[in-house]
Amino acid sequence: MRFLRSIHVAVGLLLVAFAAGFYTDYQASQLHQRSVRIQLGLERMLRLNQGLTSAMAMAVLEKNSLRAASYPSLLAELQATMHEVLGLTQAMTLASDVQALGDEQRALRGVEANVFELMRQDRWPQAYQALLASDYGMALKLYEINSDAAVGALTIELINTTREHDQMRQFTIALRLSAILLLLWTGWR
Predict the structure, then answer these.
(1) Separation between Cα atoms, residue 174 and residue 99, nearest integer Å
(2) On the chain, which terminus has fewer CB atoms closer than 10 Å, C or N?
(3) CA–CA distance from 35 to each of 42, 154, 161, 166, 170 (Å)?
(4) Do 33 and 171 meet the contact criterion of CB atoms below 8 Å apart?
(5) Which of 131, 138, 94 minimizes the C-alpha distance to 115?
(6) DSSP secondary structure string, 47-66?
(7) pTM (2 decimals)?
(8) What is the pLDDT of residues 115-154, one digit of tens each?
């Protein structure tokens, strides 16, 4: 009777261990996919922001508004990417940093909208002055620094979360092995 109960306990432990293991593996897979999407989104945001800034600067420097023709499509892609990254990082502790990046980005886009308006009015010296103003340059540099900091901080948070999931996976593997060993020992007895 005790033998049969031991087998039931071992099988139950084995089933629980496998269920916990499958759940942990699934969570780790989801975390990895989300991490990759966040990293790609942040890198895309940096690239798009640089593209917007360079398109605007080239248009003003060359006094050629056609140079900024790609600006609206780049801006739309940047906004969509920012929205996606905000959604992916919503549950993370650093979501406020990504939100702050969005606020800084909107401030930069406001200055660039002003430059666009000046370009449309053929007021190139004023557009040049607005683009090279120290406030815009400083805001742009701060945005780049904060973007790099956010990428680094999110990377560290994702690494720590991955490490926690790996520890859980190791625990479930140990639990599976102990259940199998208990089952084998019970069968041997």
Answers:
(1) 40
(2) N
(3) 11, 9, 10, 15, 20
(4) no
(5) 131
(6) HHHHHHHHHHHHHHHHT-GG
(7) 0.73
(8) 888 888 888 888 888 887 767 888 888 888 888 887 788 7
